[in-house]
Design brief:
alpha/beta; elongated; 3 domains; binds zinc ion; 8-stranded mixed β-sheet
Length: 480
Amino acid sequence: MNRMNKTIAFFGMMTMAVVMVPSVWAQDSRWSSEDSAMVARIHDHVLGQGGCVEDLRVLCKEVGARLSGSPEADAAILWGAKTLREAGAPEVRMQTVIVPHWERSDVERAWMRIDGGQAEPLKISALGGSIGTEGQIEAPVRVFRQFEELDSLGADGLDGAIAFFNRPMDPLMISAGGAYGGANNQRSRGAVEAADHGGVAALVRSLTHALDTFPHTGAMRYDDAVHRVPAAAVSTVDARRIAGLLSDGHDVRVGLEMGCILHDDKAQANVIAEWTGTEYPDRYIVVGGHLDSWDIGEGAHDDGAGIVHSIEVMRTLVALGYQPRHTIRVVLFINEENGNNGGKTYARKAREKGEWHVAALESDAGGDAPRGWAIDATDAGTEAVRAWRESLVDYGMGDLRRGGAGVDIGPLKKEKPADQRPLMVGLRPNSQRYFDYHHSDRDVFENVHPRELKLGAAALTSMVYLLDRLEYEALGTEDE
Ligand SMILES: [Zn+2]
């Protein structure tokens, strides 16, 4: 509904308020002329002269995939610090973070045998954290959609088979992120469920709406109470084929050979750029994304986009001569994908130093065109952002929902008393194509649209500016 329709509807209900409504409406739901002018300048600057597309190209093509613990992640940390300095950050430092170091290895092979015939190659991707196969495994496959179906088999019901979890992301859900959330326990917990019922491995349908031939990796976990079995993803095309063969009554065996290695933990770092505020130097607004990625593809959408969006915040506000009221920190977090130790370490250090983070922003939902924001705040904080909705709509970022703002900034909420929790917002781009790329060989620079990436950077920069303009005495102080 546009503004005019709303106003007309309101007149229809309350004719006595005819004179008051337009001015109250304008006051409550749009930015001041000063803020409108600044947001326009931010967009002009990013769209006209922004550096985020070139930053993403360098991160993807010269650094590449950068899983925590890898030499590429070390290179990404150095690149991030250098790029933030060049963007004009007054101070850049490293914050040491201990991260896990899992490696896929060069040995990653799978095959399929139908009714005892010849082995046909099958493309897989080991799930992050999986153990290796220590040689080869070949076993019959049984297909499941829900873990409850395994329970009905009993403790040894799989009897040495491979459990194949084939529940698709729900195509009827409007939110692709919601559909992902409804399917990803197969990836995170499939190996535990398989082992717990006598299975020798878990094979998981890739988490994507796309019907294609790319396996999508991602984090999985073990449970200390259950012995460990290997876990791998297959593409949606292969998943459909295997399920079809099984439902037609064929005998399907799958072979796996994976050389995954879990090295000792390693010291890496969050990269922190700091710009001291003029009015409230001891109050912080943090904005960031995660520098690590999975080890396949280039981590372009996940989360190269969020990293270059965040760097662009610094570059743009410095170039426009802005003087922040609060201290602004751009944080390139490490290890979101398989541990979140970057986010946890940052929050712990902030608590130890007694730092008051008034606001926290994250971009970790891809580089597609912005649609709006996920808000995680008190009622007062949420209302402060909602009051801008009509102006945000003009820039295509007016879809406001309460919800998780980001994994990296999440621990800031958990580790703070209620009266010091930041007003948290996460950039929400269009989610419909994100999982086509997510955690796969398709997550490359070429699959990020340059103009949409810039619009995301301009949106994030605008929101940092707007949150810097708020007064926080009255916000973020009430309990939930
Ligand atoms: Zn991510």
